[in-house]
Design a protein that fits this description.
This protein is α/β, with parallel strands linked by helices. The chain contains 8 helices and 8 strands, in the order αβαβαβαβαβααββαβ. It has one domain: Rossmann fold (3-Layer(aba) Sandwich), CATH 3.40.50.150. An 8-stranded mixed sheet has the order 3-2-1-4-5-8-6-7, sandwiched between helices. Helix 5 links the parallel strand 4 and strand 5. About 40% of the residues are buried.
């Protein structure tokens, strides 16, 4: 139940970051809830990628355009600047090569939105300190042997990566306990979830952007 509220609040914050009438690619889109929210509220043209058959069928039932694809390999078919935004929500820590994928999505999309659980949250730190075991929480409810999260990261890790990779952080949003939005003070300690709006550095931008047209992905 808590994880559902947490995801809903994450989706709400992501929707706020996306302009109306744009093209959005959602990597690891799940059941398509966020893409449907974007269509309903902002008239977004959306496409989802997910490897899970059950989730893909849920997307189709919603009327969300979706491709069943492994994110680790599925981005190769998309040209640079094909989308206004590429979204990775709760997916970055589960992919094989997050560094390569981050750089690729900033070519496929003019901007990227990345959301991930912060492994440096104080509850996680205390759990390791006092229990001496891999931590479990409401938003990370997995055992060490069955977790889909293969690259745990912190807010500080991510910011360092962006700085070293020439990635510009345009906006930051943090959710604390109970999925509530918090300020930007001591976020690496208090934030359970981090959401970043990103853009490629000036030296990485293409001088000429080629627009593409996508089929309208939703049905009434």
């Amino acid at each position: 139940m808590y994880r559902d509220i947490y995801l809903k609040n994450t989706y709400e914050e992501i929707v706020k970051l996306i302009d109306a009438d744009t093209r959005v690619l959602d990597l690891g889109c799940g059941d398509g809830e966020m893409l449907f929210m974007l269509y309903e509220r902002k008239n977004v043209y959306g496409l989802g990628l997910d490897i899970d058959t059950t989730e893909v069928l849920k997307c189709i039932k919603r009327g969300v355009s979706v491709v069943q694809e492994d994110i680790n390999n599925g981005l190769k078919k998309y040209k640079d600047n094909s989308f206004d935004y590429v979204v990775m929500s709760e997916t970055l820590q589960a992919v094989k090569d997050p560094d390569k994928i981050l750089k690729k999505i900033l070519k496929v999309g003019k901007k990227a939105i990345v959301a991930f659980p912060n492994f440096a949250h104080y509850k996680t730190r205390l759990s390791i300190l006092f229990n001496g075991k891999m931590p479990k929480s409401n938003i990370l409810p997995f055992e060490w042997y069955d977790t889909p999260n293969i690259h745990h990261l912190t807010i500080r890790d991510f910011k360092d990566f962006c700085k070293n990779s020439g990635i510009k952080i345009l906006s930051e949003v943090y959710l604390g306990d109970n999925g509530k939005r918090i300020g930007n003070t001591f976020t690496n300690f208090f934030a359970e979830e981090a959401i970043f709006l990103l853009q490629k550095g000036e030296d990485e931008k293409k001088v000429q952007i080629k627009e593409i047209s996508l089929p309208f992905p939703f049905k009434k």
